[in-house]
Structure formats: structure tokens, C-alpha cells
Design a protein that fits this description.
heterodimer; A: alpha+beta; seven-stranded antiparallel β-sheet; B: alpha+beta; Aldehyde Oxidoreductase, domain 4
């Protein structure tokens, strides 16, 4: 499945960049994070609880930034497993500064889901993915657009 | 008298139903032993992946988890691989690579079923995904992803098998006036028995004896397999007892050995505690052996007058990751070469290539005697394609070509010797019963009004009763079967047989065979099967072999008893044995009906007053090696109406005329046909398992895997002709699978017939409303 879209964020590009490429910050917007373990600046392991409809699983995701071209382009590969299910995501983002205070993020994500969640939840997958995407992006917007605190 | 006896031909009520309808059947999951542990299996979410690591530590910390077993644990025991029945091998648990989704990866043994499931959830496996191949045609192309790295041969080709006269067939095609060709796909489907598979393994460390209760259609073969596979662990065949208790449907799906069985046995041997494994429904559909999955290209050569001359068939058989079919050793494509069907082709050539893919293993004979459904569907569909080509009525074209009744025993172009048949009689009866001529008139009138109605025929010939020892074995064990009969002093009888009912009603029908032969009421005859400690050795029940093979053994064992009984009767009647005859279920002095002895009187004497010099007792054993297979046949006619709006196919009528030779119990035969027809309807219109490009199963639960219910099932109309098998001791041919084999073509032919005037020649099954509606739209007739 491929998902893509654009998102306008009322924050300068540098700030958006540093937020989205920092495992500690970006995972605050991931759904239901159970734990985070940063291996090195490019790699981290995050445990999230996610699912489709009633079929939920705890996914252990190994995430790697495979391309980091500051301040505009990044590729991230996330591979994870829950009991009986597996997921692989390859995502890219390109940030363009609209002006000094606004940024446009173009993003795309190829997601492969296998196992129980795919088998039982295939029909609900699109809706569930849209919902998660929306939650994640509104969280990112809210955090980035909030006034900077000291 | 005859009715009291309840011998052959009587609709005796099924003895086993007394317990089934009261909920008193005893299935594997009803076996509960003190201290029993439960096993559950972690399965792969990916269709092809390298296992980098399996972390069992969290699972082992769960209170109640006794053990976690991975492939590496099985290596020292040499149990990580096991042989299949087809000279291939299959992983019990993988050590480094998984080859299909839902493959077993690790097992958890725990004190409770739910704790075992929690343990499975806590196992963490680090997979590295590998490229996946799910299409057998792509799998056979050069450079395709290699499924089986363990093999020396570095491609996905398993075997090539061919039969017939290639040069002669090619020449016949070259010279033919008319050639029709049709590609067809017989989809991958799955046996969906009411009861899933399961086992309770109990190893007694003191006695060194293993007892297993197991859902198996072939308990003796399983005992031998355990002894051969695990003999090095000290399991000898006299210390292994396999019990098949009541089974809720088998249909071929309970012939193979699944990894879960091996794991439960291993866990019991290691822990010394009984271990139970019962798979759930999703595991059953996703991981157990599939059926069909044949990609067929078939050609038929004929004269312009419709005379069929030659048949040429090329097939690719998708076997998944392991060739775990359950065919007789000599026939990797089963009895697919019954594909010449009911017609006297002069020349024929069939070739089949097996392919590995990243899909679950199998290729079992789902309620069909080893690929006979694939064969019957192909030839019966192809005959209709020829009828369309020649603009001939499909019934008339069949009548013109049938092997005539005078030609039996008939040797087919592919080498089978058909025992007996009268195909024209069966088709005529079906046509009369359904009112064929009137239906054709109605169809013409409806077509004029734009309504879609179709009539489909299937005049199939089956091949069952495997089989004669000269050609048939499984793992080298010849496919005879057996019966042991003991007549007790009071005239009651114990019959033990080497086969095993999964719902067929053996306790009744085998009792009826003995009742007929010995003149003892069927109520006084107990039939036992499925316990290897007591039953004589046999190869089990599948491929409609119980009546043709074990039924033969039963009749002959009973006749051996009657021979001895005759001598005792003569002794009691103070007559010369030559003057004693068996008449009206009694021994009589010839011409003096008043001087007679019943079998019960003889039985009592066998223990109390037997002739001097004769062994006491009255019992016999027979191991029956059938001289030939049997060839049941039938003609089915189906009438369908098609909804031009939704594309839905409605079966208006379905007449099934079956000929299974001598009928033991008409009621049971009718029940078998009803069930078989419904199982034939299923793949015709509903059932199929598909996979996406990643190897994800698309029909892995009953949410997506569509089975017909009472709502979808039409009113079956059955009738029979009786053409006994000349070589079978009671003339029976077997009936368990005829309807499954014959029905799909009748339904598909009816749908194509409804659309033929629009230029439609073939639709692959399952014929779903979606497929039909697409055609209606293309042809501009959708409402």
C-alpha cells in the first residue's frame, strides 16, 4: 500500500527538520508508544501498540534513517513485528520552506503488512491507516506550531 | 427375515448416530488426561524470510510455560525435518528460513491452553524478508526466486510426469478435422472439516510406550511412520499405539502428518507428560494441506461428425513449499490420467510438472481419489467446448461418444482397465428425470426474451479403491486392506477393520456386509476401527477405498467363517458337508429345509461342541489385495438462472444419477451424495484460497473463505443405476467422492451454457457474481 500527501506546518523548516529527525521527539507523536531505545543517531527501536479494528498488536519496530540530507530530505525504513504479523514501511519526506515561518512537508510511505493483521483486517486497513496518519500529523502540527518555550 | 438381518441393500439407521446426536461422540479434544500439557504454535507472518533470531526468553518467564521448542532444539534429535509421503521432506520447525506464511516457527508447551497461547505471543522472531514467488508458472521460469535452498537442484521444478503415446497423439492432432483447446485453472481450496486437526500424545516413561489419540484417516500408517521417523529415539512399533477416535470429517486433510503432531509427540517424550495440540480454525485453513491448484491446458481432437479421437493435456501442479501430497508413490499426479473420462479416445497424452512456491504444502485428494476431480472437470468442460465448436447438443455429443456397455472391461488409452459401466443409461435417466427436451425449449424461449438460463451436464467416470499391490503403495506399504471377524459363542460378532470412518458410517455398513454373509442381525454385530493395538493393519480411509478394499476383506473374511461354519453345521446336522447348503441365511440339508442350523447355533457349537480334530472358535482374518480399481460413474444435470443485475448464479434444479455398483445402505449412499454435491457446489461457485504478491493468504478465515450453507445449497434430486463391479466380492464400487468429482463441471457447464450465445466459452471456477457481472457488462447485457 502506498500512502502520500502534503502537510503545511506553521513553523520554520529547521525546526521541523530537527523535530522529525530526532527519534526522541518524533516518537512522542507515534501512537501508543510503550518504549524507545535509541541505538545511535540514525537508528532506534520503538515499541508501539497499534492495530486495525479489534485486532491489536504490540509492534517492535526497528527504525533507521537511511537518507538524511539536511535540511530538506530524509528516508526512513521501519521494520517491525507483532505476534503473527509483520510490517515494513519505507517513507520519504521532503521539506520546503514556504517562508521563514512556514514549511511544506511532502511525504510518501510504502507499507507492507503481512500476517494476521493483513489477513483479518485487510478491509479495514485503509481507514485505520488514515486515522493513524491524521493523529500523527495533528500531533506534529500541534507540537511544532506551539509557541517555543524556554 | 431379510429385513431383520439388515444385510446389503437395506437402509439400516446409522448405529454411530446414537452417540453423535446425543453429543456423546468422543473426539480427540475430548481426551483429557491427568497432568496434561498444552501445545501451541508460533507461525510465520511472512511468506519467505530468513530467521535471524528467535528470542524465547519472555515466553519462558510466563508462569505455566513449561518449554519452548525451536528448530535448533530439534536438530540434535534429527527431527527438524520429516519425510513427506511423496519422497520429499518437510520442515517440522525451521532452523534458518521460513518458506510460507503460517509456517510453524516455534512451539510453546504450557500447563493451560491459554498460557500456551500467551507464550506464543511472547516469542520474538527477527525476520529478514526474502523475495516471494506465489505463482507456479513464474516459479518455473529461469531466474525465479528459489524456494528450496536445501535441495541440490537449484530451481523450483519438483518432477515431470507423463503418460500415454506422445507421438501417436501428436499425429492424431495433426491429422484432426477439429481441434479445441481450453486453458483452465482448478483453484486452490481447503478441506474445512467441522473438526480441525489435533493430537494427544502420552508417553509412558516406565513402559516406554507412546499412546496417541489423533485425527488421522490412516492410524496404522501413522504408527509405522512414527516408528520409522523416531525409531532412533527408542520408539519401536510395538510400543506405539495410535488411536483415531471419532473424527469430524477428514476428506483427505487428515491423511498427512503435520508438524504439530510431531511436536506434541516430541514434547510428551521429553516431558513424560501427556501433551495436547488442537489447531484453531485459522491455522487449519492457512497451514494444513491444500487441495487442487492445477493449471491445465487441454486439447481435444475430433472428427467433424463429433467422434472424439485424441486428448492432449499439459498441467502445472502448484505444490507449495514442500511436496506433501498423499498420492500412491508411483503416481506423483495421482490418478489424473482418468482424464479420458467416459470416452473411448484412441490416443492420449498427459504431462504434469510439479512446482514449488512460497505457499503452504499439500496437494491432497480433497474428497477425491487422487486428482480425479481435476481430471473429471477438465474432460467434462472440454466436451462442452467441443459441443459449442461443433454447434452440437452436449447431451447428444456425449451419447454419441460414450464407451459402449458392451466394451467393458475397457482399457483406456492411458492404461486403466475400467471394470464396468453403462454411461448412456445414467445420462438418459438424468435427462428423463429433469425433462431435458422441455428445458431446451424453455431456454430458447427465454433467450428470445433476453433471460439467461443454462443447462449443464457432467457424465463423469471415477477411479477409486486404491489399490492393487502391483501398482499401489504409500511409503512402500502396499495398499491392501483388512478385516478380522470374531463370532462369539452366543452368536454376536466383533468386526475389526483396517480403515477408519470420519463420518462415513462404517459401524453400520461393514456390519451390514457381515450380516449379509453370516445371516446374523446387524444389531448383533459390533464394528471397531481406528485403534492400532486391536485392529488389523490397513492403510486407512481416503480415496473412496473403504468399501472397495476393506469391504472386500470383510466379505471374504466372513466367507472364510462361513466355510468353517458349514463344517460345524454338517457335524450338528449329522450330514455330509457336501449335502449342506447356505440358503435363506441358514445351513440346510439340501432338499430338507426342516433340517437346518442357524449361524448362532453353529457359533455356540464352535465353542461347545466342535467336531473332533477341528480347531475351536469361529474367527477369520483377511488381507484383501484388490485385483483392480473400481470405476463408479454418474451423470449430473444442472439448471441455472443468471441474474442480469447482480451476476448471481441461481441453481434451479440439480439431478444427480449415480452408479456405484452394489449399494450396501441406500440411505447412507444418499447422504454421501448430498454431502458430496454440496462439496462440489462449493468450488464451482464459492471456494478459493488466493495469495497476494507478498504471499499473504487472502482467504485465511471463514470471513473470507466462502463455504456454502443451507441458504446457498439447492434441493438435490438423486437417482441411481446399478452396474456392479465384476471383480469386487460384493460388486460394490464406492461412492464417497463421486458427487464432489462430478458436480463442479455440471455447474460450470450450466453457467457457460447460459452465456454461450453471447460468445462465452469458458469461465474459471469459482464462478462468482463478480466474474459473471463483468462478462454481462462486456457483452452489454447487464441490467
Amino acid at each position: 500500500m502506498r500512502f502520500e500527501g502534503t502537510l503545511d506546518i506553521a513553523a520554520p523548516r529547521d525546526r521541523v527538520w530537527s523535530f522529525l529527525t530526532d527519534p526522541k521527539q518524533v516518537t512522542t507523536c507515534a501512537p501508543d508508544v510503550q518504549s524507545l531505545e535509541v541505538t545511535d543517531p540514525h537508528r532506534f527501536k520503538v515499541v508501539v501498540r497499534a492495530g486495525v479494528g479489534p485486532i491489536k498488536g504490540t509492534f517492535t519496530m526497528n527504525v533507521e534513517f537511511t537518507e538524511l540530507e539536511e535540511p530538506g530530505h530524509a528516508t526512513v525504513v521501519a521494520r517491525g513485528q507483532a505476534p503473527g504479523s509483520a510490517v515494513e514501511m519505507r517513507s520519504t519526506m521532503d521539506l520546503a520552506a514556504l517562508d521563514g515561518t512556514r514549511t511544506t512537508m511532502k511525504w510518501a510511505s510504502d507499507v507492507t503488512v503481512s500476517g494476521m493483521i493483513q489477513q483479518v483486517g485487510a478491509r479495514l486497513m485503509q481507514g485505520a491507516a488514515d486515522k493513524i496518519t491524521q493523529q500523527v500529523f495533528s500531533c506534529i502540527k500541534a507540537k511544532l506550531e506551539a509557541p517555543v518555550t524556554a | 427375515m431379510a429385513v431383520e438381518i439388515g444385510g446389503i441393500g437395506h437402509s439400516v439407521k446409522r448405529k454411530e448416530d446414537a452417540r453423535f446426536i446425543r453429543g456423546k461422540g468422543k473426539y480427540v479434544d475430548d481426551v483429557k488426561l491427568p497432568g496434561m500439557l498444552y501445545l501451541d504454535i508460533a507461525r510465520s507472518p511472512l511468506a519467505h524470510a530468513r530467521i535471524k533470531n528467535i528470542d524465547t526468553s519472555k515466553a519462558l518467564k510466563i508462569p505455566g510455560v513449561v518449554a519452548v521448542i525451536t528448530g535448533k532444539d530439534l536438530v540434535p534429535l534429527n527431527l527438524h525435518w520429516m519425510p513427506t509421503l511423496m519422497s520429499d521432506k518437510q520442515m517440522v520447525l525451521p532452523t534458518d528460513t521460513v518458506l510460507y506464511q503460517a509456517q510453524e516457527v516455534a512451539a510453546v508447551v504450557a500447563t493451560e491452553r491459554y498460557i500456551a497461547a500467551d507464550g506464543v505471543d511472547a516469542i520474538e522472531v527477527d525476520y529478514e524478508p526474502l523475495p516471494v514467488v506465489v505463482d507456479p508458472i513464474k516459479a518455473l521460469q529461469p531466474g525465479a526466486t528459489l524456494v528450496r535452498e536445501d535441495r541440490e537442484q537449484k530451481d523450483n521444478h519438483i518432477w515431470h510426469w507423463e503418460v500415454g503415446d506422445k507421438a501417436g497423439t501428436d499425429k492424431a492432432f495433426k491429422d484432426a478435422e477439429v481441434v479445441v483447446k481450453q486453458d483452465l485453472y482448478i483453484p486452490r481450496i481447503h478441506v474445512s472439516s467441522i473438526e480441525t486437526c489435533g493430537i494427544v500424545a502420552s508417553f509412558d516413561k516406565v513402559e516406554g510406550k507412546l499412546t496417541v489419540w489423533m485425527t488421522t484417516q490412516a492410524p496404522h500408517a501413522i504408527r509405522t511412520v512414527i516408528a520409522l521417523v523416531a525409531g532412533h529415539l527408542g520408539l519401536a512399533e510395538h510400543k506405539i499405539r495410535v488411536i483415531s477416535p471419532d473424527i469430524g470429517g477428514g476428506f483427505g486433510g487428515k491423511v498427512p502428518v503435520y508438524p504439530g503432531y510431531v511436536l506434541a509427540i516430541g514434547a510428551s517424550v521429553l516431558t513424560g507428560a501427556p501433551v495436547k495440540w488442537i489447531e484453531d480454525r485459522a491455522e487449519n485453513i492457512q497451514a494444513d494441506s491444500f487441495a487442487r491448484d492445477y493449471h491445465i491446458s487441454a486439447e481435444l481432437a475430433a472428427k467433424k461428425d463429433g467422434t472424439m479421437q485424441a486428448l492432449r493435456v499439459k498441467t502445472i501442479a502448484d505444490h507449495g513449499a514442500f511436496d506433501a501430497a498423499a498420492n500412491p508413490s508411483k503416481y506423483p499426479a495421482g490418478l489424473f490420467h482418468i482424464i479420458t473420462g467416459s470416452y473411448p479416445f484412441e490416443k492420449s497424452f498427459v504431462e504434469v510438472d510439479g512446482a514449488y512456491t512460497n505457499k503452504p504444502p499439500g496437494g491432497i485428494a480433497y474428497r477425491c481419489s487422487f486428482r480425479v476431480t481435476e481430471a473429471a472437470f477438465t474432460i467434462e468442460r472440454l466436451v462442452d467446448v467441443l459441443a459449442l465448436e461443433l454447434k452440437r447438443d452436449p447431451a447428444e455429443l456425449r451419447m454419441q461418444n460414450f464407451i459402449p456397455p458392451t466394451a467393458f472391461p475397457y482399457t483406456s488409452a492411458l492404461g486403466w482397465e475400467y471394470d464396468s459401466g453403462d454411461y448412456g443409461r445414467a445420462l438418459r435417466l438424468a435427462m428423463d428425470k429433469i425433462g431435458y427436451a422441455e428445458l431446451r425449449k424453455e431456454q430458447a424461449a427465454k433467450r428470445a426474451k433476453g433471460e439467461l438460463m443454462g443447462i449443464g451436464i457432467s457424465s463423469f467416470t471415477e477411479i477409486v479403491g486404491a489399490g492393487p499391490s502391483k501398482n499401489f503403495d504409500i511409503l512402500g506399504i502396499k495398499m491392501f486392506d483388512s478385516a478380522e471377524i470374531r463370532v462369539h459363542p452366543t452368536g454376536k460378532v466383533m468386526v475389526r477393520i483396517g480403515v477408519k470412518s470420519q463420518g462415513q458410517g462404517h459401524e453400520t455398513t461393514f456390519g451390514q456386509i457381515v450380516a449379509e454373509e453370516l445371516g446374523i442381525p446387524v444389531a448383533d454385530i459390533a464394528v471397531e476401527e481406528g485403534d492400532t493395538d486391536t485392529a488389523p493393519y490397513g492403510l486407512g480411509t481416503y480415496a473412496s477405498r473403504s468399501t472397495p478394499v476393506a469391504g472386500g476383506a470383510t466379505a471374504i473374511a466372513a466367507r472364510k467363517i462361513r466355510e468353517k461354519a458349514k463344517l460345524i453345521a454338517a457335524h450338528l446336522l449329522e450330514a455330509n458337508p457336501d449335502d449342506v447348503e447356505w440358503k435363506d441365511y441358514k445351513f440346510q440339508v439340501k432338499g430338507v429345509p426342516a433340517k437346518s442350523k442357524t449361524m448362532q447355533e453353529v457359533a455356540f457349537a464352535a465353542y461347545t461342541n466342535h467336531p473332533q480334530g477341528m480347531e475351536a472358535g469361529l474367527e477369520a482374518v483377511d488381507y484383501y489385495d484388490p485385483p483392480n480399481l473400481t470405476f463408479p460413474f454418474g451423470s449430473y444435470i444442472c439448471v441455472v438462472d443468471i441474474d442480469r443485475g447482480t451476476g448471481e448464479v441461481k441453481i434451479r434444479r440439480f439431478v444427480a444419477v449415480d452408479d456405484c455398483g452394489t449399494i450396501i445402505n441406500p440411505m447412507i449412499v444418499e447422504g454421501q451424495i448430498h454431502g458430496g454435491l454440496t462439496m462440489g457446489l462449493a468450488p464451482a461457485l464459492y471456494e478459493q484460497i488466493t495469495y497476494d504478491e507478498q504471499g499473504n493468504i487472502q482467504g485465511g478465515t471463514f470471513m473470507d473463505y466462502l463455504l456454502p450453507t443451507a441458504m446457498e445449497t439447492p434441493n438435490w434430486e438423486t437417482a441411481k443405476t446399478t452396474t456392479p463391479s465384476p471383480h469386487h466380492p460384493i460388486g460394490a464400487k464406492g461412492v464417497g467422492e463421486s458427487a464432489t468429482v462430478g458436480a463442479p463441471a455440471a455447474i460450470a457447464n450450466a453457467v457457460v451454457d447460459a452465456l454461450a450465445h453471447l460468445g462465452v466459452r469458458h469461465i474459471d471456477i469459482p464462478i462468482t457474481p463478480w466474474k459473471v457481472q463483468k462478462i454481462l457488462k462486456e457483452k452489454g447485457v447487464a441490467e
